[in-house]
Amino acid sequence: MIMGRVISLDQACERHARHYLAAAKSHRDDWQWFDCELAQIEEAWQWLRAQKAQETFFLDFVFAFEPFQSRRGQWREVAAWGELAIPVAQALAAKQLEAELCNNVGLACTNLGQFDKALTFLQRAAALHHDADNQRGESNAASNIGTIYHRRGEARRAIEYYERHLAISRQLQDLHGEETALSNLALAHADLGDAQRALALYEQSLALCQALQDRQEEAMTRNNMGLAYAHLGEVQRAMEFHEQALVIFRATGDRRGEANALGNLGLISYRLGDLRRAVESYEQQLLIVREIGHRHGESNALGNLGLAYAELGELEHAIAYNEMRLQVAEELGDTRGRGITLNNLGNIYRQRGEVQRAIEMFEQALLIHRRNNDRRREGISLGNLGQAYFTMNDRARAIDYYQQVLAIMHEIKDRRLESLVSWQLGEAYDALGEFQRAVELMQATVDYERAIGHQDAEKDAQRLEEVKHKAVVAAPKAL
Length: 479
Fold this sequence. Notes:
Serine Threonine Protein Phosphatase 5, Tetratricopeptide repeat, about 85% helix
């Protein structure tokens, strides 16, 4: 009898890990394979991380599986594996690999809502690229740092980094980088309430997409232009751009883009009051993101359905979808998503008359957004608390919360939300009979709406005239 060669347990484990490394490279776009083999991949990883003399193999393994983990929203794993790999790259003096790992960890932490930690890693990546005179890498790092400030609600600070990305891209004649920078700048200006500036930047971006014959980027730009028109209150024009984007995404087979466009079409239908059509769009969005394994997209679609059903008054459905979203956010370690969902659930419970329960949820959301240093969402949570206390007829406490929100929005220069809160605060002062203060605040909103050509400007102006009349009637008469 011929006996086979006996191998050690360590050799068997190495063969197992190398088999899955090779398989990852041959299944690059097959996330379903990744899901099926996840337990085996994790077992290979546990063996590999215990090895001391397998540095190159270790790094190959981390880089091979990062695209799968990112696709599936496994940001905690991307961050954890990357953090373990960074010292290995440092030991090998592999500066470029270290920079890429820092970038991956930074992006993962951004998606987890861990903005301060993300900044640390992305700033390290930028420094490594700068030392290596890698302008393209430094440019990309600037873009990613801008994204953190943007998601934290600091759009002005984000713009500084996006402009740096734009300048380097133009210097390198990197048209794709220039197009990305223009799109990011447009998004930031839209969030600051300057939709006209955003549209001008998008037009430049769109021209570059067409020059590059980049259909997918063109579709993304058209999708974003739809959002800018929605900010201006031009919802029909917004729908046209989202529909154009949807056609291109479907023609190019971009399923994730298709889901995004459907979500945006749902948003437009929601704003037009066509809630059943909004639900249809969101259900199609949910079907696609589940089909392609896009967990963050699933979270967004569930949240959208929750909002639509809340507006329809079908509160049990709304709660169910938001609780599903909460579960997905917790599975992903997405604290930002968890805070957003708690705010949405709080609004549903307030709508249901359970104001105290709503307040508990708003307070939990506020705590999360403060921990994440997300100033915009901190302000939204405070605004929700103001609405809750306004509902309870505690006008003084409501005003206190609204004033905190106003200060934050003024600080981060978010004119759109500052305008919205000015109106809410004006309504609160109107209810208290302090009509002159109400007029000053509501006038600021109407001035802003007229400046951007918002469709509600004249309707709100009529409401302002009513409050002005009250102020005149209430004013002391001269003797």
